[in-house]
Write a structure and sequence with these properties.
Length: about 90
Amino acid sequence: MVSKEGDIYITSKRMLIVADGTSSVAHDKILDVEVDQDEKLITVIKDGRQKPLYIRVPDPIYTACAHKSSLRSMRRSGQVPDHFHRR
């Protein structure tokens, strides 16, 4: 079920997953982030991708909050429309 397992970095513009290489997902392409604290997983639903991305992280709640905080900063600066993210 886990798509990626490795280090995750959240910048002001994207989420970087460093595992067997580096993958990045721009915050404005993320439609939803779900948290499974018991399994230490975040589920990323990305625009243009049929299947969700399952990422195992040490602290999924902190990771999801960091993404949401970055998205809020992007909204304030006008980089993402207010209506883009449902949550």
